[in-house]
């Protein structure tokens, strides 16, 4: 005799089965590609995170290139079919591991190789870096958001930098990078979630959009090897053909940070140089609307803001030193306002970080760490613009790789140049007649007052704006 409980259980199974069929029939297909270069420390965690997603990618291709460590052998252990069940839905995927050996096009070559494996069989391309750990809901959120509007060509996850396990310098740099990423992400979230850069760390891209970019720009591949910031250029091209580029409101990923001054310098100089390459008028004939393309406006804003930071800080130091040298300095409480506003802004950003740590709060609250990190970024900014204007032919990808291995001293150049300039200015100042010294101070301080006031007003505006519940 069949009981009521058994009948209810049978009906429940039918509902579950119907749910599976309807879900699998309607969902899009996603191919994940992981370009990996010497990622033996992270590749296992990256793949484990992907295989525990509440919505698995339909296929995962690990494309290993130029590697001389154990990345291939560690990734190879994951090759083959996998499945994961979440809320009665079972997803299946298969991992393929490719070692393409020497690859002169580096990450771009690995991405294009992965694209060639999946472009004809899947709806969406999910790019994940070999050191990026996805939150377990990341793929599901990215899929939901890109499917919500056919006008969206790509959605980037919200990135943060993982906490290092040891090393005082590494922890300091991680806090700085977390604050830097948080400020960048919040700016994009509050601009209608319009994302200027679909970062290669973790972004989902429409295959249709990628193929259209290739046709419209007469490219053989979506990513081109002659750009220092391949993801920025592709984002610009996707925007140019009429698609929106967005940042997710919920999908999250933790990326590997730069743990040394050398490595950070290599990464940031490459990023800055590549951005300048896209921004500068006439530099690229295949970027319509340059230099005022919508995706480049935030880049220009960032560079102008950094220029203000340089002018106000260098101006204050030079004028202060000059005034003290002739006993003409008078303290005004006004100069306490800019650092106070900066602390408020940094603290507001720190409080917006999802899963923030005590170190994030301390980094913002004690002004000195944030100020030191800003001076490091100023050095990267100056180095990138100097390399660009000098037309110095440098492989910045290779330079970053050498820096991450602990080679090179380019990161010290801004400090050495600053010392030489300071010595020259000191000599010139001490040899000026007293009347000219007074005239310089009489003109310099008012100009600095006005410049600092403008900058402080913009900082205060950012500190007081509503975040609308967004977390970064």
From TrEMBL:
Gene3D superfamilies: Spore Coat Polysaccharide Biosynthesis Protein SpsA, Chain A. Residues 33-212 form the Glycosyltransferase 2-like domain. The chain crosses the membrane at residues 306-326, 409-430, 436-460. Keywords: Glycosyltransferase, Membrane, Transferase, Transmembrane, Transmembrane helix. CDD domains: CESA_like. Belongs to the glycosyltransferase 2 family. This is Glycosyltransferase family 2 protein. It comes from Arthrobacter gallicola.
């Amino acid at each position: 005799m069949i009981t009521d409980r058994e009948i209810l259980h049978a009906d429940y199974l039918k509902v579950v089965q119907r749910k599976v069929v309807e879900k699998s029939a309607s969902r899009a297909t996603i191919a994940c590609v992981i370009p990996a270069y010497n990622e033996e420390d992270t590749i296992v965690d990256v793949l484990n995170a992907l295989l525990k997603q509440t919505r698995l990618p339909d296929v995962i291709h690990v494309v290993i290139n130029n590697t001389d460590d154990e990345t291939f052998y560690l990734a190879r252990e994951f090759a083959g079919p996998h499945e994961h069940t979440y809320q009665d839905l079972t997803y299946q995927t298969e991992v393929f591991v490719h070692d393409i050996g020497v690859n002169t096009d580096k990450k771009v070559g690995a991405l294009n190789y992965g694209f060639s494996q999946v472009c004809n069989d899947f709806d969406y391309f999910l790019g994940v870096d070999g050191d990026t750990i996805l939150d377990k809901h990341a793929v599901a959120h990215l899929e939901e958001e890109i499917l919500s509007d056919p006008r969206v060509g790509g959605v980037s996850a919200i990135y943060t930098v993982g906490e290092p396990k040891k090393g005082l310098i590494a922890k300091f740099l991680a806090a700085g990078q977390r604050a830097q990423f948080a400020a960048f992400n919040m700016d994009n979230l509050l601009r209608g979630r319009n994302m200027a850069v679909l970062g290669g760390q973790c972004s989902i891209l429409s295959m249709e959009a990628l193929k259209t970019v290739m046709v419209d720009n007469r490219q053989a591949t979506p990513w081109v090897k002659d750009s220092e910031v391949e993801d920025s250029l592709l984002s610009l091209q996707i925007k140019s053909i009429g698609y929106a580029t967005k940042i997710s409101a919920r999908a999250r990923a933790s990326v590997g940070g730069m743990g040394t001054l050398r490595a950070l310098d290599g990464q940031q100089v490459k990023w800055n140089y590549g951005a300048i390459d896209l921004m500068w008028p006439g530099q690229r004939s295949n970027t319509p609307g340059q230099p005022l393309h919508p995706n480049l406006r935030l880049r220009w804003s960032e560079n102008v803001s950094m220029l203000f930071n340089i002018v106000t800080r260098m101006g204050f130091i030079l004028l202060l030193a000059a005034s003290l040298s002739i006993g003409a300095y008078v303290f005004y409480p006004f100069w306490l306002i800019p650092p106070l506003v900066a602390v408020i802004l940094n603290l507001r950003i720190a409080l917006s970080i999802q899963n923030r740590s005590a170190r994030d709060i301390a980094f913002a609250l004690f002004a000195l760490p944030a100020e030191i990190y800003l001076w490091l970024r100023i050095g990267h900014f100056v180095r990138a613009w100097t390399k660009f204007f000098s037309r110095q032919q440098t492989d910045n990808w290779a330079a970053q790789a050498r820096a991450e291995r602990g080679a090179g001293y380019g990161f010290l150049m801004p400090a050495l140049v600053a010392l030489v300039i300071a010595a020259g200015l000191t000599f010139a100042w001490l040899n000026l007649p007293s009347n000219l010294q007074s005239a310089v101070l009489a003109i310099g301080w008012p100009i600095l007052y006005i410049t600092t006031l403008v900058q402080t007003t913009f900082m205060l505006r950012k500190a007081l704006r509503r975040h609308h519940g967004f977390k970064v």
